[in-house]
Amino acid sequence: MPVLVASPVTQQLAAKLRLRAAELSALLQQHAGAAVLATDNPPDVLDFKDVAAGDRQAIIDEAALASATAELQRIVAALRRLGDGSYGECQDCGEPIDERRLFALPATPFCTACQAIHERPAMPRR
Ligand SMILES: [Zn+2]
C-alpha cells in the first residue's frame, strides 16, 4: 500500500491546520446555533440601547464570521494539498515556501514574493 511519507514538519503543520479547522468549524456552528435561537426566541422587552448594541454586535459577528469562513476554506485547501503532496509549494511559482512562513501561516498557498504580488492589485476591502 503506498504511503505518503510526511516529514515531521509537515505532520506538525497538518496538526496545526486540523486544530484550527476544528476551532473554526465549532465557531461557525455556534454562530449558526445562536442565530437560530435569536430568531426563534425574540426577547419580549427590548429598549433602544439594547437594540443598538445588539445590531453593532451582529455587524461585528458577521465580519468575524466571513473571515472565519474564508480562513476555513484556506485551511481545507491546504489540507487537500497535504493529501496530494503539493503542500509547501507555492501555488503560483511552484517554489518551496519558506518553513518559517509555513509555521506562521500554515494555510498560505503562496511564497512571500507571490503573496506580495497578489496583495498589490487587490483593493483593500473595508
Ligand atoms: Zn511563489
TrEMBL record:
> Can you give the residue ranges of the Zinc finger DksA/TraR C4-type domain?
85-120
Which PROSITE patterns does the entry mention?
Answer: ZF_DKSA_2
Leader sequence segment: none
Alphabetized UniProt keyword annotations: Metal-binding, Zinc, Zinc-finger
Pfam families attached to this UniProt entry: zf-dskA_traR
InterPro entries linked: Znf_DskA_TraR
Q: Could you say which residue ranges form the zinc fingers (dksA C4-type)? A: 90-114
Tell me what this protein is called.
TraR/DksA family transcriptional regulator
Q: Organism, per UniProt?
A: Ramlibacter alkalitolerans
